[in-house]
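Lab notebook, bench 4. The sequencing result for the construct came back, and we need a structural model before the next group meeting so we can plan mutations. Quick request posted to the team channel:

Model the 3D structure of this chain.
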Amino acid sequence: MNNLLALIPALPLAGFLVLALAGRALHKNAIAWIGAGSVSIAAIIAMIAGVEFLQTPPDGGAYTQTLWQWMSTENLSIAISLRLDALSLVFVFIITFVGALIHIYSTAFMRSDRDYSRFFACMNLFVFAMLLLVLADNLVLMYLGWEGVGLCSYLLIGFWYETPANCRAANKAFYITRIGDTAMAIGLFLLFKELGTLDIPGILQQSPQHFANSSSNITLIALLLLAGGMGKSAQLPLQTWLPDAMAGPSPVSALIHAATMVTAGVYLIARMHTVFQLSPMAMDVTAIVGALTLLIAGCSAMVQTDIKRILAYSTISQIGYMFLALGIGAWSAGIFHFFTHAFFKALLFLAAGAIIESLHHEHDIFKMGGLKNRMPVVFRCFLAGAAALAALPLISAGFFSKDQILWYAWSAGNGNAMLWIIALMGAFITALYTTRLMLVVFWGELKTPVSAYPGRLMTVPLIILAILSIVAGFIEWPHNLIHLTLFSDFAQKVLPATVLKDGVPPEIIFQLIAAVLTLLAVYTGYVLYYRNRTLMEKWKELPGMMGMRNFFFKGWGFDQLYETLFVKPFVFITGINKADVFDKLYNGIAKANQTLNRLLSVSQNGSLRWYIAGVLIGILFILTLQLLS
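Done. Here's the predicted structure in token form:
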């Protein structure tokens, strides 16, 4: 299997190179086969590797393949080396399998786009960069993939660059994630300074002994790595780029939210778990960031009207649950929620894309309605994804993964009552806005006529993802119900087991509270948005309610805050500084060239006799010099 490992990222890279160099000369059918086929074959190889990994676990718990030596200095040696262990296998499977379904869907969704080849070239490069990130055996190679997904997100968010708002959204994503990337790079420098290596196995092995007496250094490194993860995974306070990233095509949104980009921060923290465990402060900050993010983003999702922005804020919230789980030491629970989230979030975005295309590119959910009978396949698939997002008890994959996090938020070693309360509030809000989304879009009157219906290339991936959104959670049951822990047993080959506190109440109590609140949220949404809609109108008339709604709608004012604190002062300073000595120097050079150009252009007046006279004068001048010498 070691020899086939490099094929997994190499196939999407090959697809990118072919489409980037020769895409304009290829027929759209050929482009679709290359774009979707390369990722699909990579998914097949990944599944073969996974089966072999499970049947005959490799020595040392990982497959490794070193391709060549990248760079070597006196103290630093970096190889292009890949490593597939239990953690990276979960991510590779999601990236390739879900990525392949998104690519297949895209072959039909983007068929009429004039830049068909450019789209698939960027998508293939995106998959390659994410695979490189999770398969890298050292942090330098991981950082290459890390920056690669940032570049691809910029290219795909601004794919329809003719619209200025799309370009602004792409720039915003690029700038904000650079903040986290810079912090991460500094963290890598500090790691190398302390340990003398950037190989991941070496760091995980040496860190406990080296940092035994230097907690301040390891805390700084962990916080810098956390900042990198916060940028890529759109966590507070670097979350503002993700809602605007919905400017890209719907398949791009599905790929970013389910299989690439925003999950990179989750992978980084899980991969560097030893570093974070050595810093209790960094663990606490991770948990707090996740808890606050899931609550803030959930409140914003509750009042959005754009179907894709609702799902975008829900992604920020669900990634917050993953950060919360990692911060409290529930490592396998956080990765399990990533696993189930990938299926239902990809499903919801792809189904939303089908709805938007069928309704003349309409995004406003209050201009939809009545689609339950008009688009039955999309409705049933969306219902499965919504059930998983709302974590309906025992019937959706989202329940099994979120239930673990809610339980560990109280009972894990770093958990506490406040984190549990915030997570529980987030679960209630999630079920409420999910119910709102379902009822407004699929029930009621048909407000926008359906112009077209999705074909099989779009509906088959939806059906597959819908099935997985229901059944994928059954591999990991709550401990007190059925002792089936296949996922955590597998993940704990790499990640530490969750340590519980002593004297915690029975788990069934927390499960019943969570289930009752979820069902209560569903019923509340049913009453407000279907049974008695006048209640919502009366609520809007209460003093301050619309102000609060607008505050949530604008993402808690973070964009306005950053505009005031950073953007306007920066623009003001650059305005003052625009005529400094360097600008005068460059302006002087430019003016000198313009003056010289005007003088020389006098000789280029278009008169043939002046040209002949000039040539003769030049000849006479040369002959005179010869005679004088």
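The two ends are 81 Å apart (CA to CA).
Will bring this to the meeting.
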